[in-house]
Amino acid sequence: MCICSLLHINKIFEVGISEHLANKLQHVNIDLVGKANSSITEELDYISDLVVGVIDVQRGKEKGYETVVKEGLCDELDELRMVYEELPDFLEQVSANENASFPLSLERRKAPVIVYVHQIGYLMCFFDEKISDALLVGLQDFEFAFSEEGDERRFYYHTQKTRELDNLLGDIYHKILDMERAIIRDLVCRICQFVPQLTKAVNFAAELDCILSLAIVARQNNYVRPILTEASILEIQNGRHALQEMTVDTFVPNDTKIHSAGRINIITGPNYSGKSIYIKQVALVVFLAHIGSFVPADSAIVGLTDRIFCAMGSKSMTTEQSTFMIDLHQVGTMLRHATSRSLCLLDEFGKGTLTEDGIGLLGGTINHFTNYDCPPKVLLSTHLTEIFTENYLPQSEHIKCCTMSVLNPDGQTNNDDIVFLYRLVPGQALLSFGLHCAQLAGMYITKLYSPGKSW
Question: In terms of domain of life, where is this protein from (predicted)?
Fold first, then answer.
């Protein structure tokens, strides 16, 4: 089916594309028509005919058992499948003949039947009651096989007739499977001769799918074409988070402006105020711009970026390191390799240890960046506001402080009227409104106590 889809794609390009679209494609470095012609070749037609001539995916659904090879391909296989599909009626007739020859001592409320069990063969099934040992002695050709519990008890026996059926028909279902698998293996071997052509075609289809997906998302969500520049700057007007905006009723966009000054952005603000989302949305805009996509913003000028470094407090389930140790490794890599063209994201770095140690690590990291002649573009969110009050930061034109604005009419930390505005503005925030956030999360705490204090 995938090969047929590839051939269908090629038919589209063979028919041609509109003159308007052709003119548009001249301005982008995407030769879709040329790639389609070189990637989807005559070999795919041969492979398609080969697969379609062997495989019938609907057959198994129609017949009710595992079978995919087309009828008419192998006479021996067709004969086996015909016998298997007529087996229930045949066994019903054989069972009736056998029951007629049984002694009266074997009569049951429900007549025994001969059944076919995969990988075991043919068995005579008696219901509800097992044949007594005394009767079994007189039935020389009967041999107990096993019993089965369920809605009704079943007891299975080998008999002379079931042994004859084993010799005559054998494990017919698995004979069919073995023959079909042999045919499929031969088909796969033939297809494997064209792996390079298939790989090239699939890679083209993947690239086309990616381009179409980016185009559809851009149109549906009003993305704009970014401007890439060699200058190490970043200007985003009303930038949005590509995923977050799809999950909320109203998304508040924010601007970003990083030039030669103010390249180290220290972002403070309460919990729940949107700091992490803002940092991630900037990184996504930069990344999308570099892969040739439109971006979620009203406008964007993106300087060429060599790396995007992240220390976002992520925890890998496959690593034995703690979240804090992972952060340290990520920031260490950032400090060693970041250049003026890099984008560095730090989300609450230093929070995983004692406050004093965290402040020292955060302050040292910021100091390191300020020593650059032209620092990387840094977006750093933190609740460690002591770095402002205790002079941990140097006086530098590279540092710019921003905060996520909050509407707090009474100026209280536990005010129920607090409204998060999700808007990035210049300044610093010294309050986290943690108790208010706890209430929003469903933690209805009336009082918190500590030695000698209560709130």
Answer: Eukaryota
Phi, psi of 146 (to 5 degrees): -165, 170
CATH topology for 223-454 is Rossmann fold (3.40.50)
pLDDT the model gives residue 22 = 63
3-state secondary structure 171-184: CHHHHHHHHHHHHH
Based on C-alpha coordinates, what's the Rg of the chain?
Answer: 36
**Sequence spans of domains, the chain:** 2-73+179-216, 94-170, 223-454
Mean pLDDT for each 10-residue chunk of the chain (455 residues)?
Answer: 54 56 63 74 83 84 80 91 91 88 71 89 88 76 87 88 91 91 92 89 86 92 95 95 92 94 90 89 96 95 95 68 82 92 90 81 89 92 82 85 80 65 86 66 57 48
As to burial, measured by CB atoms within 10 angstroms (0-12 exposed, 13-18 middle, 19+ buried), residue 350 is: buried
Per-residue pLDDT, 200 = 87
The pLDDT, as a whole number, for residue 442 is 67
Dig out the tokens for 424 from the structure. 């990035």
- Of 314, 301, 163, which is closest to residue 228 (Cα–Cα)? 301
Q: Are strands 377-381 and 264-268 parallel, antiparallel or unpaired?
A: parallel
Q: How far is CA 248 from CA 209, 240, 244, 251, 270, in A?
A: 27, 12, 7, 6, 20
Residue 115, C-beta contacts closer than 8 angstroms, at least 6 positions apart: 91, 122, 123, 125, 156
Indicate the length of the chain as a whole number: 455
Q: How far apart are CA 359 and CA 383, in angstroms?
A: 10
Q: Between the CA of residue 221 and those of 203, 295, 314, 436, what are the distances in Å?
A: 27, 9, 28, 33
Across the beta sheet with 399-407, the strand order is 308-311, 343-347, 377-381, 264-268, 399-407, 419-426
> For residue 201, how far is the Cα from the chain centroid?
23
Sign of the CA dihedral running 145, 150, 153, 159: negative
